Structures are given as C-alpha cells and as structure tokens.
UniProtKB/TrEMBL annotation:
It holds the Pfam family Response_reg. The modification 4-aspartylphosphate is found at D55. It comes from the Bacteria. The lineage of its organism: Bacteria, Pseudomonadati, Bacteroidota, Cytophagia, Cytophagales. This is Response regulator. Residues 6-124 form the Response regulatory domain. PROSITE patterns: RESPONSE_REGULATORY (PS50110). It comes from Negadavirga shengliensis. Keywords: Phosphoprotein, Two-component regulatory system. The keyword Transmembrane helix does not apply.
Amino acid sequence: MNEPKKVLVAEDSSVIINLTKNVLMFENFQITAVKNGKQVLEKLEKENYDLILMDINMPVMDGIQCTKAVRALADPKKSSIPIIAITGNYKNYTLDDFKKAGLNDYVQKPLDYDLLLSTVKKHLFK
C-alpha cells in the first residue's frame, strides 16, 4: 500500500480545520494543521508535504505572502509543492492573481467538500 499523502492545512478557523481534516482523513490523507503562514514555513523546514491548502486571510503572515515565500525556497521539491488557496475573498482576486502569487488553484468558502477533495486529488495524482 502506498504511503498516505501528506497535506498541510494553513487555516485560522478551527471549524474549517476540523471539517477539512475529517474529509481528507477519510480519504487516507495525513493532515497537519497550522494557523498562519509563518507556521507553514516552520513546518516546511522540518518536514516534506505533498500539498498545501492555504487560507488567504490569516494573521501573522497571509496566504499570498506565505505562498511567495514557499516558491522562493531553495529546495526545488518544497518550492514546487502544489498550493491550493482557500478563500472567502475570491472576488478580490482572480485566478490570474492567484497564479501570479504562485498558487496552483483555489476553492472558495464556504467550502464545498466534494470540490475540495476533487481539487486536492487533481493536484496530488496527476
């Protein structure tokens, strides 16, 4: 059996973290959750992940800043990790804005968990 895929969830809402964990763990993903972009970078220093779900509006370091920092990492595996934005502010951004920031895709809030799961699988099992 294959190793479970490791997903890092960056989200400041505990409710969304718990729902997302439940949906993804049901599909045998290994989930780690953090509350801001700075914690994402700290986790990436110590571990490898297969995908990041990135809230755009977070305290300390937002998702756009964090994505740019991830893309600037020296490790090519880590700097090219698929990052999917989770956002309630999608009207303020276009997919083009997300792509320019280095995001691979986005799912808008309130989250449609079927769409979230299909988006995650699309980027993990290319």
